[in-house]
Amino acid sequence: MENRETFSEEIKKIFEDMKNTPEDQQQITHNGVLYPSGLCSSEIFEALSTFEAREDDIFMVAYPKCGTNWTVLMLQDMVYVVYNKNPSSLIPLIEFGGPGKYEKLKEESSPRILATHLHYDNIPKSFIDKKTKMLVVFRNPKDTALSYYHFYNNNPKLPTYTSWDTFFQDFMSGNVCWGSYFDQAIAWNKHIDDDHVMIITYEAMKEVCLIC
Length: 212
Description:
Elements: H1 7-17, E1 27-30, E2 33-36, H2 42-48, E3 58-62, H3 68-83, H4 101-107, E4 113-116, H5 125-129, E5 133-138, H6 141-154, H7 164-173, H8 181-189, E6 197-201, H9 202-211
Parallel strand pairs: 3-4, 3-5, 5-6
Antiparallel strand pairs: 1-2
InterPro entries: P-loop_NTPase (IPR027417), Sulfotransferase_dom (IPR000863)
EC number: 2.8.2.-
GO molecular function: sulfotransferase activity
């Protein structure tokens, strides 16, 4: 397929460009939540507030390290088979990149595959109003925390933790990028019966793939 380069590779390129960013500037705060400064900005959050979703968008939502890359790739494969539509060259996470990205997304043919790590309350209102189909993925919080710990320490563009205990305290209190895993889980629990929302776990998807 064309444009098969995954967005994880694009993100690696962005982090590579951030090599000289001082550690105290590697994260920004927006509405009380931390985000990586090389991927998110106040400008993109402002532009995101007026982003127009489509009813036929496919929107994947997951806390970091819950299988985002894998799930997006599977969705892209499904759309390719059904619609013969190649994956977009744009990074699908809506909060990544610059404000100009949204103009390019307007030109994308449907169905668009979009994704986010954002808390339910921070998702653009148009996704909610249009009842865009949302696939929400969760992972065992213990595995999520461990994977996130290694992600922080293996990424030179995020603060390094000297011990698991220190990171665990920050993870439990939501003092990490994209905030609290548990706050996000509680928010989605309120929408578990919404017709346009499907909640699944990383473990369930993995089990199905092993059976297949």
